[in-house]
């Protein structure tokens, strides 16, 4: 499969998942929601791991610090996003603002940490993205 198709699937799945936050936030508490989501994810990923990744290294002990940090960051982001909806954020503002913000953060990480090249098109894209967050936030 091409990476472009896989990115499309990621956008589709995560985009629909993000849209569901708005609905879930009015039905359940954040902790209860994430508990059930996490339990289901463990089952889904556990089955996927054992059936799709045969022969892959089975020990993760030496990778636990980075995995723990990733779990903490993901959980913090999920809770903040959930509470944004509980605080009255509209779906048409919250999802685009978060998505664009993540793209900007990813671009800066690529430039400063991964040492990727800074191109004119990337600079223009970052400026337009930042302006986009500003204008999306103006929606009332």
Description:
With 140 residues, this protein is mostly helical. It folds into two domains: 89 residues, no CATH class; 51 residues. 78% of the residues lie in helices and 0% in strands. The radius of gyration is 18 Å and the shape is globular.
Summarize it.
By secondary structure, this protein is an all-alpha fold.
List the SSEs and their pairings:
Elements: H1 3-25, H2 30-52, H3 64-86, H4 91-112, H5 120-137
Helix pairs in contact: 4-5
Structural key phrases:
140 residues; mainly alpha; 2 domains; 5 helices
Overall helicity = over 70%
Strand content: under 5%
Please identify the structural class as seen in this structure: mainly alpha
- Count the helices. How many? 5
Average predicted local confidence, pLDDT: 85
Distance between the termini: 41 Å
Radius of gyration: 18 Å
When the domains are counted, the total is 2
Largest sheet: none
| Shape descriptor | globular
Please write the string of helix (H) and strand (E) elements: HHHHH
Number of strands: 0
**Unreliable segments (pLDDT under 50, ≥5 consecutive)?**
none
């Amino acid at each position: 499969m091409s990476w472009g198709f896989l990115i499309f699937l990621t956008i589709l799945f995560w985009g629909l998942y993000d849209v569901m936050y708005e609905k879930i936030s009015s039905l359940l508490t954040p902790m209860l929601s994430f508990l059930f989501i996490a339990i289901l994810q463990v089952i889904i990923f556990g089955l996927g791991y054992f059936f799709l990744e045969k022969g892959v290294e089975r020990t993760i002990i030496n990778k636990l610090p980075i995995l723990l940090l990733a779990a903490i960051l993901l959980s913090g982001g999920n809770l903040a996003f959930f509470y944004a909806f509980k605080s009255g954020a509209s779906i048409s503002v919250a999802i685009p603002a978060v998505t664009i913000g993540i793209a900007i953060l990813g671009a800066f990480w690529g430039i400063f940490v991964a040492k990727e090249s800074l191109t004119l098109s990337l600079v223009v894209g970052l400026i337009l993205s930042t302006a986009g967050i500003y204008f999306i936030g103006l929606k009332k």
